[in-house]
Design goal:
By secondary structure, the chain is mainly beta. It folds into 2 domains: about 90 residues, Carboxypeptidase-like, regulatory domain (Immunoglobulin-like, Sandwich); about 200 residues. The protein is built from 4 helices and 23 strands. Strands 10, 12, 13, 14, 16, 17, 20 and 21 form an 8-stranded antiparallel β-sheet that branches. The longest helix has 20 residues. The termini are far apart.
Amino acid sequence: MKQNIIFKCFIILFLVASSLANAQKQLVVVSQNTKTPIAFATIKTAKTAGFYTNELGQFTLQDSIKSITINCLGFEQQTLSINTLQDTIKMQEKPIPIPEIVVRETAEKSLEIPLKKRNKSFGSLLLNSKQELILVANPYKAVAGRKINRINGLIKKHFFMKHAKKVRAKKQLLGSKTVIRLNIYTVKDGFFADKIYSSKALKIATFYGESFSIDLSKENIYFAKEGLAFAIEYIGNVCPNKKISYKNQHIRPATVSKQNKYYKAKTYLKYTFKNLEHIVPINDLINSNLPKGVKPNFDINLNFGFVLD
């Protein structure tokens, strides 16, 4: 009898301890001024790999986490202790500094740099969720100082369309939407520096491949002589229940294998929630993993199209 009582007490204590260990907080991030949710803000913690708020600004936090750091372009960064967290976290807006540049004085016709449609080798690169491909573009004379009115890009067809063996994975992809965004950075000493623009999140059906186009005509972003950096950030896949799926997710941003006559290009791979030492030039990564006998001379870069004034 005593053994049964002791056993039952042990089970109860175990269940209580488990529930406490798995206790979660449901939180939402909003703008302090407008009270609107901030979608896909980054949340960094000491114990996790980092994650995003969902499209409603919501996220779930384990009670075991001691503090979080919240970031979103256009808002002040916040580092908060778990003990002081409210259910609604209000972010203070912060102006985005736009660097001064020398604007072209002579009136010229609009210039279109077309998105290359076909590439025989390395027509795309695999990009996992929580990663960013960043094209650093140092403009030549014909482009420097021009205003950027539009950027075009392409996410290529998912591999499962060509090799549709994993039916479950295929169904999951069809039931969710890939979420990406375009980021623009200043360039300093040939390397990307401060983020000056983030597009609204773009939902793309990457199962079939899809192009995207970002209107920048009202943003007053100019192709600085020092260069600009243009990035595709892959957030994850949004499921019908609004949750973000990160596991085993990848997309295929289109690439080109030749430099063009408008700017000198170099592409980097950045891990969203890791430090700068984890940034890798994409061609170093490709060339270091080539089979024996293949010369390491690839020059692969993100494929973007531009409309400039």
